[in-house]
Fold this sequence. Notes:
Layout: H1 2-35, H2 59-73, H3 80-102, H4 105-117, H5 119-150, H6 155-165, H7 170-182, H8 187-197, H9 201-216, H10 220-244, H11 246-269, H12 271-279, H13 281-305
Helix pairs in contact: 1-3, 2-5, 3-4, 5-6, 5-10, 6-7, 7-8, 8-9, 9-10, 11-12, 11-13, 12-13
Amino acid sequence: MEIQIITIVCFVGGSLLATAVGMLVRNAMLRTAQAHGGGNAEVPASWSPARKLAPATSLVGRIDQALTQVVDQSGLGWGIWSVVLLMVACGGAAAAVALLWTDDLVITCLAMGLGMIALVPMFIVRRAKRIALFQKQLPDVLDLLARAVRAGESLEQAVAMVGDNSAEPMAGEFRRCSKQLEMGLAIPAVMRSLAGRVPLTEVKIFGATLTVHRQTGGNLAAMLERLSIVVRDRLNYRRQLRAVTAAGRMSATLVAAAGPMLFFYLMVFEPEYFGRLTATSMGQMLLATAVVLETVGLIWIWRMLSQSK
């Protein structure tokens, strides 16, 4: 037991030390960038409209790009290296607890993997809430832009006014758009940057509307008012869709939770049965088959529920 405690202390201490060193290096790099004129150095580089990453071809590259995108779109303002270091620290802590509880190397490695990916659902939920709130605020913002344009304000002034008078997260995104316009970026580039940070179809339509108006002209106020009506109709449709598919989503949630909860119950409260299950090749094969089938079923249900969006 003393060796286990020493191992746990070293594991957790090493993880926390790596996290602390990484944070210090990141802060030093930010201060250096700001000292050389990078006043907006805290903004993730993937938000820059000038940075267009090609789709990755390898599995690791796709996972890296997907994680970076989720973290950026969550609105927390964290850098990807900070997230990775925090994941390593959580994985180390989970592995230490599993080693102390079970004294099994396989379970310890499994707990470390689960601890590392435990933060990903948090970012996904945060991203979904932020995008849903942005979508809810968008019709009122379009009306505000239309009124500002009718009052004689330019598009740049109207965008700045929305950034100063709206609630978050809309205010922060439009302030960033206003800063980009002040730096001389064109409307298409600014709208592409906004669509990359807020992956909504309505935002893409809004960007296309402003781009077409800047190139061809027209009554911008009337277009924004019609777009506001369209966005409200789409929002009402999505609300009705969520109400209709509530039973299916609840069933998917129960199916997704039943397997892990049973696995955790057997591992903690029935370790003898769990040991017999994992000790034989037949039990391992059945366990792996159950995981694969449940994953396939959940993906199937999710695709059916999101097919109408």
